[in-house]
Amino acid sequence: QTLKIGQEAVNLANALKSDNKAQGSWGEMILERILQDSGLREGKEYQSQVTLYEHSNEGRKRRAPDIIIYLPDNKQLIIDAKVSLVHYEQYVNAGTDAERTSALKAHILSVRTHVKNLSKKNYESLEGINSLDFVFIFMPIEASFMLTLQYQPQLFQEAYDQQIVLVSPTTLMTTLQTVSSIWRYQKQNLNAEKIAAEAGGLYDQFVLFLEAITQIGYQLDKTTESYQLAKKRLYEGKGNLFRRAENLRSLGAKTKRNMDSSIDDYDHDE
Questions:
Q1: How far apart are CA 240 and CA 233, in angstroms?
Q2: What Cα–Cα distance (Å) separates residue 110 from each residue in 17, 116, 117, 155, 207?
Q3: HSE-CB of 146 using CA atoms within 13 angstroms
Q4: Of the candidates 231, 214, 224, which has an alpha carbon nearest to the alpha carbon of residue 265?
Q5: Are the CB atoms for 175 and 36 separated by under 8 Å?
């Protein structure tokens, strides 16, 4: 897929010639495709074309980073997709070695100038940016990225020292997939914390349930004791209620029912 994107990029660069606006729009389209394939969700793990403001001695400046990537712990990455492809297109279509060399130098100078200008934007001081790790300069044509580092390898370190990283479709996709994995692990850790909290709550509730069951058992025991005492008073002793009631019937009291003399195997003929 990366090779296909690279070939499409070369073909389009040839067609666009020196139209900076069209090339920029195309670069943003390639960037959006990579973001969609990375597993990150727009509006959740990243946002595009966000308007932010910087407070400086010169007043309140408006900035519009192409992409803001959100990381756990309230950190961010910014992706800039406005690198020029004009001189690279001239390099690809150069008719002579001299033209090719001149275009290559102009291309590398263009990238270096973009790095320098980007470092002056102070994205880390923008409202809403809490902890900016790096700003990525996205070069949508893999070959232009490789060409730049091949002939000017120190440029990568120069940019890195200013917290700017040059990325191609391949390296950016790898980075974004890593970010996606970090978010996935973060969610798993949050779920683990929730599970631990639920387990603690469940244990506490279980203890309360055992206490309630124990209390019910205690009350049942007390009820049983009261029941046994009532039965003794009903059936036992010389003047128990059962015997007296039976004596009334034997003396001729008019009744419609007979007591069950077999309750709990008590001997009521004593």
A1: 6
A2: 16, 10, 10, 12, 70
A3: 6
A4: 231
A5: no
Interhelix angle for 142-151 vs 97-119, to 10°? 90
Token pair recorded at residue 60: 């309140």
Measured at the CA of 103, the angle between CA 102 and CA 106, to 5 degrees, comes to 90
Encode pLDDT of 156-201 as tens digits.
999 998 889 999 999 999 888 888 888 888 777 777 777 777 777 8
Residue whose C-alpha is closest to residue 27's, from 137, 150, 126: 137
User: pLDDT (tens digit, 9 = 90+) per residue, 61-116?
Assistant: 777 788 888 888 788 888 888 777 788 888 888 889 999 999 999 999 999 999 99
**What is the token pair recorded at 194?**
């929730």
- Decide if 50 contacts 37 (C-beta within 8 A): no
DSSP output for the chain: -HHHHHHHHHHHHHHHTT-HHHHHHHHHHHHHHHHHHHT--BTTTEEES--EEEEETTEEEEE--SEEEEETTTEEEEEE-----HHHHHHHT-SSHHHHHHHHHHHHHHHHHHHHHHHTT-GGGBTT-S-EEEEEEE-S-HHHHHHHHHH-THHHHHHHTTTEEEE-HHHHHHHHHHHHHHHHHHHHHHHHHHHHHHHHHHHHHHHHHHHHHHHHHHHHHHHHHHHHHHHHHHHSSTT-HHHHHHHHHHTT---S----TTGGG--TT-
46-48/67-71 β-pairing: antiparallel
Residue 36 has pLDDT above 70, yes or no: yes
Q: Compute, in degrees rounded to 10, the torsion defined by CA atoms 224, 230, 232, 236.
A: -170
For residue 112, which amino acid is it? R
Q: What is the pTM of this model?
A: 0.61
